[in-house]
Design brief:
This protein has 21 helices and 15 strands. The chain has helices spanning about 5-25, 55, 60, 65-75, 100-105, 105-115, 145-160, 175-195, 210-220, 230-255, 265-270, 275-285, 320-330, 350-360, 395-405, 405-415, 425-430, 435-455, 470-495, 500-515, 525-550; strands at about 40, 50, 85-90, 95-100, 125-130, 165-170, 260-265, 290, 295, 310, 335-345, 365-370, 375-380, 380-385, 420-425.
Amino acid sequence: MSIVSNVREKIRLQIEKALEEARAKGALTFESIPNFVLEVPREKAHGDFATNIAMLLTKQAKLPPRVIAEHLVANFSKEATWVDRIEIAGPGFINFYLGTGWLYAVLPKVIKEDTAYGNSTYGNGEKVQVEFVSANPTGLLHMGNARGAALGDTLSNLLEAAGFDVTREFYINDAGNQIENFGKSLEARYLQLMGEDIPFPEEGYHGEDIITTVKNIIAEVGDKYLPMDSALRREFLIQKALEEKLGAIRNDLARFGVEYDVWFSEQTLHDSGAIAQTIKELQEKGYIYEKEGALWFKSTLFGDEKDEVVVRSNGIPTYFAADIAYHKNKFERGFQKVINIWGADHHGHVARMKGAVKAVGYDPDRLHVILMQLVRLFRGGEIVRMSKRSGQYVTLSELMDEVGKDAARYFFVMRSPDSHLDFDLDLAKAESSENPVYYVQYAHARINSILKASGTELPPVENVDFTLLKEEAELELIRKIADLPEEIVGAAVNMEPHRIARYAHDLASLFHSFYNSCRVLTEEEELRKARLCLVDAARITLRNVLHLLGLSAPERM
RNA sequence: GCGCCCGUAGCUCAGUGGAUAGAGCGCUGGCCUCCGGAGCCAGGUGCGUAGGUUCGAUUCCUACCGGGCGUACCA
């Protein structure tokens, strides 16, 4: 358990004991202790921890909150809690002020745990799957995919650090309508490039990248497909093109720092009969009806607005049918929790997907869908116009060329998925102070520079007197360092990776403040040793956080 | 029309059922004979509107206003 959680739990326990004691003495009456908050107050003047328990007990105890607080304090045993003094404030808050002793225990722990610092066993090895990006393999990765990639990968890192057993998965939509359409587009481009004057399908993929793909295929096979039957020709073209497109997607994601554990093909669900079987199961359970020649899933039974087609009147299952089979498959593989990261334009899909999960026999609360709002790019203060239809959009690969991997990942993760993201390209590529990515990395580089300048090995922590660290800036920095394990768990279980980006920035900020007010390489030998250890702990913490975000931790910039 | 998300400082965004609502950018003024000035310190008019629940609401609920998205036998 982390030191902060440990301290918190001890105080919580003593609060409960104090209340029971007060009741035993007849000072207080209450049925049960309500679920109270023991939080770090916003204001430092309000102590290290504060609780609202006295206000919550007013009804049960039939006493004013401050009176309840007094009884609690009178019965509170400070032993083994690090609590130095207690004050009652405001409408009835009880503020706990801690001594600094517990903070000094943090530094040796960080240095000892090193790359593992921040990790915890909170998740108990529970199996969690995170499915993200899952872009159509008919094109290149765009900004929405990029945001999903950064969010999904960072969230996966956080879950792992919090002790979950994480599987990162990419669902390949290599079947269905859009592949049909893809085939038609490829064929049209192929024939056009071979000199035939034929129209391009209106609903086809207009992007330039498809022409390039077909050119590459022609370079390999020439006119071999020309005399072929159209169906066979499309099949060949699709196969070749998918190979290329998936390869490109895989490369771009790898360059973005994202490595998947599983690439799951939709086509395999068709081939194995899993989809047919799932539909049959739903039919047997009475969740399917026929209308106008199509099979419909009764998603309205599960709170959806309207029912949804699973098999079209032409006999071909819809994407939704495949998705049901896919999610059934996920749970069959033993994932306790399944997390999907989708663009907000898919939000209408959430209710029926959860309904479907329930229909195939699993608790829909085990499926979590993170909806992320769309991304707008700005360059020179102007919106960069994009159109998927015309195939004109900035790709992930181009973004990395322009602003670099680190800046791109940080910008995508620093906002809540709920917020519409305005991505300022000029800011992201600025190699200057206004760029928040550099701010954090600079702190890390600066630390390494100090350690190098110290010219000595770090002293063994047993020989260091940490109580010499008494400056406000030092204590605040240690406090922040101590928070990492709880920050990781909080960001992971709430599925809010942007919290950790913020933490990184706050930590860097406290380090910079410390640097400006305390000289590390001072003449005072013992103080110098203590500060070197503090700096090293800050280095470890910053580096670990940067890695969680998928960013490099440069030693020089 | 109905459904989901959002409305917080000039701009981009954090944040919480509580005690004085924050950060970055931009703007102004300071700070290195010294460990990296890509840094530090100081400076502020803001929770869309109106009700409700509560000891307490920016946070929860309702209505309204404004923006985004969805509402296909597309994915």
